[in-house]
Amino acid sequence: MTGLTRCARSLALFVCLLLAFGGGQPASANQAAGSADPGFAAWLQDLREEALAKGISAATLDAALKDVAPVARVIEKDRSQREFTLTFTRYLRSSVTETRVERAQRLMEEHRDLLQRVEARFGVQPRFLVSFWGLESNFGDYTGGFSVIRALATLAHDSRRSAFFRAELLHALQILDEGHITLDRMLGSWAGAMGQVQFIPSTFVNFAIDFDGDGRRDIWNSLPDIFASAANYLSQEGWRGDETWGREVALPPEFDFGLASLKIAKPLADWAGVHGLRKADGSPLPAVDLDASIVLPSGHRGPAFLVYRNYRTILIWNRSILYALAVGHLADRIVGAAPLSALPDEQPISLKAIEEMQALLNAKGFDAGEPDGLVGRQTRAALSAYQRAIGVPADGYPTAEIIERLRRE
Ligand code: CA
Asked: Are residues 390 and 320 in the same domain?
C-alpha cells in the first residue's frame, strides 16, 4: 500500500471511528492514544474488526485494546543493531556458565518426576527441557516485562514486519479470549515472546499444552504446562527421544573444511571411516546409524561439532547455530559431561569491517552479495573461495587477519 492510500484509508476509518464513538465528541478513553495519532486509532479499529471476524469476543477486545498505543521502547529495540559479530566463545561463556549448569542440575533433580512424565508422553529427554528452560528465561527468572498486546500492536502497526506481527497479535488476542492468561499477566519480550519458554503467540496456539489439567495453557506460571509445551513443540518438529543432539569431535589435520556445512549430511560411519573424525578425546566415534553434519562455530581454530537430526529441530525453535550448540552443550553438562575442549580467544569483528570485507571480496570477483555486514551463507561461500585461492584453511570464517590480508592484496 502506498503512503497516500494508507493515509486516505486511515482518515476514512478515523472519521468512522469518531462517528461510532459519539459523533465528533472528544475521543473516549478507549481511543485516548488514537487522539494523538489518528492513523493508529484507525489502524486499531481495522484490527479490531478483523479480530471480531475471527470470533474473538468484543469484551476481550474492549479490555485488551483499551489504551493501547505504540510503545517507543519496542521500536527502539526493533531498530537497534549490534555493532560487532557475536562470537561463539563469548556466547557460550555467557550462556553456559558454571552457575547455570549447577542450577540446572538441581532443578532437574527437583522436578525429576514431572520431567519423566513429560518425557513418557512426548519423548523429549529431561536434560534438554531443562536446557531450553535455562537458556530461554534463566529458569523462569527473565520472561520479559513488556505487555505482549502492546508490544505486538506496536510492531504490527509499524511498517517493517507488519504482516508477521499482525498475525501474532491476533493469536495473542485469541489466547486472551480463551482465558489461558489474564491481560495484566500476559507479559513477554519486546517482540512478543511469552512465558518461561518464550513462545511467540503462534507457537503457543500450535503447541502449548495444558499438562496440569486446569483447563488453561499457562506457560508463564505452571511448570507442568511449561515443560509439556516445550516438549510438544520439539516432538511435533521431529525430535527423537532416543538420540542426542550431536557431539564435539576432533578433525584430522588435512580435513577439507568445505565439508563443514549443514547442507552436507553423511552417515557417522563415513565421517569416522572416510574422513577420519574421532571424538574430541581422541577415541573412536560410536558405531550408530545416524546422518550428521559438521558445524565450526569459530572457524578452523575453534571446536568442531558433528550434529544430528535433533540439532536441526533446535534450529526450528531458534535458527541461531550458536543457540543450538548452547542448548546441546548445556544439556550435556547437566548430565555430567566435561566442558568443551578449548574455546579460542576470538575478537569480535565490527559489522563495518564485515561490510568492508564483503566489498573487497566482490572487488576480487568472489561474489559476497550486497555488503550488509551480516555473515550469511553467500558471504561464507565467497570467503571460502578466496581462502582456497590463497591456500589457507577454507572455513569461510571472518577474522581480523583475513580482512587485513584482503586489504593488502
Ligand atoms: Ca494448565
From this structure: no
Residues 223 and 89 in one domain: yes
**What does the pLDDT read at residue 291?**
95
In a domain, residue 54? The reply is yes
Ion ligand 1 — residues with CB under 5 Å? 210, 212, 214, 216, 218, 222, 225
Distance from residue 177's CA to the centre of ligand 1 (Å): 16
Report how far ligand 1's centroid is from the alpha carbon of 221 (Å).
9
CA-to-CA distance for 66 and 28, rounded, in angstroms? 10
Residues with pLDDT less than 50, the chain: 1-35
- State residue 19's pLDDT score: 32
At 14 the pLDDT is 35
**Does a structural domain hold residue 289?**
no
Nearest Cα neighbor of 302 from 338, 366, 250 is 250
Alpha-carbon distance of 363 to 358, in angstroms, equals: 9
Residues 120-146: tens digit of each pLDDT? 999 999 999 999 999 999 999 999 999
- The Cα 310–Cα 245 span in angstroms is 5
Residue type, 140: G
Is 117 a domain residue?
A: yes
Strands (E), 55-179: 146-147
Domain that holds residue 397: 351-408
Q: Which amino acid is at 345?
A: D
- Residue 125 inside a domain? The answer is yes
